[in-house]
Amino acid sequence: MQIAFESPRQQDVVDLLSELDNYLSSLYPQESIFALDMDALARPEVLFAVARDAQGAAVGCGAMVLAAGYAELKRMYVRPAARGQGVARRLLDALEMAAAARGRHILALETGISQPEALGLYERQGYQRCGPFGGYPDDPLSVFMQKELPADALTLLRGRTRAFARERDWEQFHTPKNLAMALTVEAAELAEHFQWLHTGAPGELDEAAREGVRHELADVLLYLVQLADKLDVDLRAAALEKMGLNAAKYPAAKVRGDARKYDRY
Questions:
Q1: Which residues have a Cβ under 8 Å from the Cβ of 28 and sit 6 or more positions away?
Q2: pTM score, two decimals?
Q3: Which of 33, 130, 134, 258 lies at a 20 to 30 A Cα distance from 70?
Q4: C-beta of residue 112 within 8 angstroms of C-beta of residue 28
Q5: Per 3-state DSSP, what percentage of the chain is helix, strand, and coil (rounded to 5)?
Q6: 123-141 per-position pLDDT tens digit
């Protein structure tokens, strides 16, 4: 399953949204459906995520509207045949990460009282009920929810890795030693994609290799985040500290265009 931000103006996505519209129309009167149409979804302040299966078919979607001070989730839908595989949760994860990366730390949504599965998902993901927002009427068929996100994407990712391990009872295996070893292995698997290439520039990688690189980079990042979590290291602060130390070791005016180590100057 792959999730990416795409244009909603694709026929398979149009078909997906049509299914969602038909589903909502079977549950609520039209005056209680507050859906974004295609023109609204294509606006620059809207991000549209699509979940595709191994064959590339669109099986789920979700949108995020960037408003002043918050982001709103819209058009969440997963085809019945793809449900029970964590697709909706992964769509939520992608949208939440995108919101945090764009400085929106409050996510809000409107859903309906006749969608218990959606309500359960949102509650499990930490959304809490609230009042109407953003000009919505206080419709008796609506449920309004919101969630406060961590202040940065790394903190959000750390929470996701904690939950992922806890759900599988893997915390017992995630010692600093094991995580450090796993990180090293994943870094080696990343390097393998570049072995024997001239420079490893994007033009030298075919589609399968680019996908492999993307996945290995993700594994390296995930293990790094988990290792830092176990050792109580603030990765952002550590990175900024290290950049300061490197700047002192390698003054730009002194080392420009020279790749030698600092003790060789």
A1: 112, 114, 141
A2: 0.67
A3: 33
A4: yes
A5: 50, 20, 30
A6: 998 999 999 999 999 999 9
